[in-house]
Amino acid sequence: MKILGISAYYHDSAAALVEAGSVLAAAQEERFTRKKHDASFPSNAARFCLDSQNLRLQDLDAIIYYEKPLLTFERLLETYLAAAPRGGRSFVAAMQVWVKEKLFLKSEIRKSLHQLAIEMAQQRGEPEPAKTALPELLFSEHHLSHAGAAFYPSPFEAAAVLCMDGVGEWATTSAWLGEGNTLTPLWEISFPHSLGLLYSAFTYYCGFKVNSGEYKLMGLAPYGKPTHAETIRRHLVDIKPDGTFRLDLSYFKFHRGFRMTGRKFHQLFGRPPRQGETELSQFHMDLAASIQEVTEEIVLKLARSLRRETGATNLCLSGGVALNCVANGKLLREGIFERIWIQPAAGDAGSALGAALVAWHQHFQGPRSPQPDDAMRGTYLGPRFSNGAVKAYLRSVEAPFQELEDGPLFERLAELLDAGKVIGWFNGAMEFGPRALGGRSILGDPRNRQMQSVMNLKIKYRESFRPFAPSVLEEEAANQFELAASSPYMLLVAPVKAELCTPMGPEAEQLFGIEKLKLSRSSLPAITHVDYSARVQTVTPRTNPRYYNLIKAFQRRTGCPTVVNTSFNVRGEPIVCSPEDAYRCFMRTEMDVLVLENQLLLKEEQPQRNQDESWKDEFELD
After folding, report:
1. Nearest-10 crossing angle of helices 387-396, 579-588
2. What is the pLDDT, as a whole number, of residue 161?
3. Using alpha carbons only, what angle is made at residue 414 by residues 376 and 437, rounded to the nearest 5 degrees?
4. Residue 168: pLDDT above 70?
């Protein structure tokens, strides 16, 4: 039985294909359209999933959408009516979108699916299929899809499941018990009381984009002190001992307006919201540290309550808040649960997969067999390109390259990393989810003190405060980090080993905010954040043997089993998908080396005509 799951029309649309409970393919639409956080119907992602298995839409047994639109519409109506007459302009704008596009989403989805089926038939030279040939269309619920994405691919036979995000139809936080192939709902917290929206309110207030800038706020937090945490607890959110909470809505506008915060919120903190691209002050860093502390408090209290209620020893996490890897790391170190598994595509994109698994296990009552690691296949579920396809493209743009077998290639790359070169690494299938995990990555030497600033300012074109993550050989992780579990999806932050850290002298006390970057804090300065932490990815030969062997070659040359790993993109663009995307990014930045499968390209050898800088004129700052 083959099932296609789709998420769309809000943000991060995606498609995922499942056969008898096995994950076959998954991808986000943004990777194909090159429009970051693309919310449109995932035609390209769905076509990829089907083409990867040589399937047509008519070959599927079911298609499932990740939530129930009419329940969301009900929530919008009730929320605006409760706030009336305030929020009138926002209500009119929202209703225009709903009446035009979303109220009749079932027919809109069927229309888009039929158009996709026609296009695929034309591509194959087949007759156009009738609408009646399309499979059954099912609808999941938003948090059920999150829960399905969290539990069903996990390695656990049984586990507690905690889903935390902005909002689904009504739920903002939900708890479940997963056993075998069943998910049993336990309780939920409903809109407008939302941990995700609380965090997003501070994202907005500090001048970052909601639904994309939350990880910037998390990265900013270690530069500050939680001096406003008590103010947040006293005025904005009432946290109960069991972790449940209520917001004081008089400070917010997300439930009735275009903005996240209101005048009362701004008066509480003594200034208006920061405008994007203006200077970040110590005030904003302290705010980031404060909301991070409050978020961690809520997550830990909810987890303890869930452990007491269920008796479960395993915990699964999903929803956008599950991408807060600092909170995840603290949750792991607290030892509330023996084992934790986090869905790598924890946001709405991953709900396409969760919905497909819900259809198989819940609707069709399909069996489930947990895998020893997990069922995500390292989350390498997207498009892959053969050496032949890569070479054909490079020849079409007359790009000089050298083709090397794996062994010599890895040794050469280890030499280049050791020499301080920045390498674009395009390898195998594209990752599903927001993290680059050695499929579409930019790599550097973590021992290099200049590497963080070079990669931020000359490669990624982003804020200098942003930390970079390490990829470390799994068997060496305990020698580099205080990490008591594997972290294949870069969703856990852990302290760098004390013996690798550099004690700070008196001069450190004189530095504030971004100035803290001036001091090297460990023998791995490029991946050590100012609080001596790192967002760790552990790499094994089971899921990505080529990436593992590259790091192994670097270890043989330098003794260091770790490389810097950041996503292969520049600020404002999605992670690259195709060789063309990768070469364009390579030529637009000051990256030194590009590897496309077994093809090695050096920047100084590339023709000047391939360097296109016109994109900078229209560059979208996020």
Report:
1. 50
2. 98
3. 20
4. yes
CB 150 within 8 A of CB 316: yes
The better pLDDT of the pair 476, 504 is held by: 476
The tokens describing 547, both together, are 């990436």
User: What pLDDT does residue 571 have?
Assistant: 82
**What pLDDT, on a 0 to 100 scale, did the predictor assign at position 66?**
96
**Positive or negative torsion for Cα 326, 330, 332, 336:** negative
Q: How far is CA 401 from CA 391, 397, 595, in A?
A: 9, 11, 9
Contacts of 302 (CB under 8 A, 6+ apart): 162, 164, 173, 175, 242, 243, 244
Strand ranges (E), 325-473: 339-342, 402-403, 423-426, 440-444, 469-473
Mean pLDDT of 446-454: 86
Structure tokens at 545: 């043997």
| Cα 220 → chain centroid | 17
Rounded to a whole number of angstroms, the CA Rg of the chain reads 24
State which amino acid sits at residue 340: I
For residues 119 and 114, give the distance between their C-alpha atoms in angstroms, rounded to a whole number. Answer: 9
Q: Nearest Cα to 237, choosing from 280, 277, 290?
A: 290
Residue 29's identity, in one-letter code, is E
- 517 and 530 Cβ atoms separated by less than 8 Å: yes
Angle of CA points 555, 557, 559, to nearest 5°? 45
Helix, strand, or coil (residue 354): helix
- Maximum CA pair distance of the chain? 76
Q: CB atoms < 10 A from the CB of 447, how many?
A: 21
d(CA 257, CA 147) in angstroms, rounded, equals 29
Q: Is the dihedral of CA 130, 135, 140, 144 positive or negative?
A: negative
The residue assigned the tokens 């993290």 is 435
- Give the β-pairing of 469-473 and 562-567: antiparallel
Residue 173 CA to residue 195 CA, distance in Å, equals 8
